[in-house]
Amino acid sequence: MNNEVIYRLSGVVKVYQDRRVLDIESLDIYRGEILVLVGPSGAGKSTLLRLLNFVELPTAGCISFLDYEWREGRAVPLPLRRRVTTVFQQPVLLDRSVEANVHYGLRLRGQLDGKKHVQDVLSRVGLGELATRRARTLSGGELQRVSLARAMVLQPDVLLLDEPTANLDPYNVGLIEEIVQAINREHGTTIVLVTHNIFQARRLAHRVGLLLDGHLIETDERERFFEQPRDARTAAFVRGEMVY
Amino acid sequence: MVRGLSKAIQLIVQGDSALFEIVTLSLYVSGMALLFSTLIGIPLGTLLGLNRFLGRKLVVALLYTGMGLPPVVVGLVVYLLLSRNGPLGQLNWPLIPELFTPGAMIVAQTVISFPLVAGLTMAAVMGVDPRLRQQLIALGATPWQAAWTILVEARTGVFVSVIAGFGSIISEVGAVMLVGGNIEGRTRVLTTAILLETRKGSFDMAIALALILLGLSFLSNFAMLCLQGGGSRE
């Protein structure tokens, strides 16, 4: 992790049908860090990830990504957008082979070769022998690993993970966490991970942020966040109390 | 009837030239109409399936209405448009076909089948997991790339829409009779020929034509069933 800011959010607001779901006064995300966002359901975590992946536009405010300032009304250039990708909680795969699914993002970018790279990544996530299997015949854990491989093969600057292990057994949770840490360690990929699981946050995070009702309550280095939270709501959340 | 049936089979096996001409023209007219329906219907269905815009409900309602239009009513409208005093007939443009030509029949059958192709394509596209589009955009797809990928995912339903479109026009008689006129060697197709031969009392030919029409209809329905069955197994 270094001090280069890869994302800077200023006054970012997202409104859906008169309901303000996200209101972030300020957030910096640093290149190479693992930032884990925690908070109850409906806090705005997934909305924030969608904004960071430029799948949606903010209603107001500014998001700066790699020195490009994205404001209301501006379209993010495609080459920039393609430097970020997301692994969602429920993997959504195409009705094709595992290999074709993992290769898909490369084909979008005109990289029709890359079979070896795809095979290497599949082996890395423990699915090397399932390359020709129909993706939709796989188990939940295998599907999520395909989803992760599909993102890894693109070698993004930023990998966003929206509760990637929420529905998985402990074995697959451990496997995916190990892969995420390896991606960060070996490639310097910036990781923003959303989770309910504070134990997972403890295991993975360099920094942790708490979202409540769309507001970023506190962001801090992992140890300080859990051991010496500044905000009473953070302390309550860490203790496992309801914070609504 | 049994004698008629055996003579009909003889006509088919021997490749009777009049029969062959009628079948060929039927396949040509319906094939071309299906081609145009597909070129219009699949993009329109995809657009309606993937997007929400002002007026979409009206367009969809018109599409559903089009799916149930009686072919003879379509024939009447096309007849009035293409007749010498009609708004299109008066223009004398080379691309606008004249009445009592295969071109006019193609226009009428295109109008009949494209709402079906568009409507079923729309349904197929809407049946694809709605989260897929977000995932494709997150992987770096442009809106066009995402739309194409979703269409490919919906391919079974899209194929069914094309086959259903074919089924709706190969067996219709009202529109082609009105705008084609059932002229021998020029606009006589399976359905209009069956009408004529039956009225003439030439049951051998009528039954032969009917068997072929039934065969085509059966094949298209069987293909649809196979695709749907294959799709559900997936």
Q: Could you state the CATH homologous superfamily of chain B?
A: MetI-like
The interface involving the most residues is between:
A-B, 22 and 15 residues
CATH topology title of chain B: MetI-like fold
Kindly provide the name of the CATH class of the largest domain in chain A: Alpha Beta
**Rg of chain A, Å, rounded:** 18 Å
Provide the CATH top-level class of chain B: Mainly Alpha
Secondary structure: number of strands of chain A? 10
Number of domains of chain B: 1
Instruction: Name the CATH homologous superfamily of the largest domain in chain A.
Output: P-loop containing nucleotide triphosphate hydrolases
Short description:
The complex is a heterodimer of chains A (244) and B (234). With 244 residues, chain A is of the alpha/beta class. Chain A contains nine helices and ten strands.
Core attributes:
heterodimer, A: 244 residues, alpha/beta, Rossmann fold, six-stranded mixed beta sheet, four-stranded antiparallel beta sheet, 9 helices, globular, B: 234 residues, mainly alpha, MetI-like fold, 11 helices
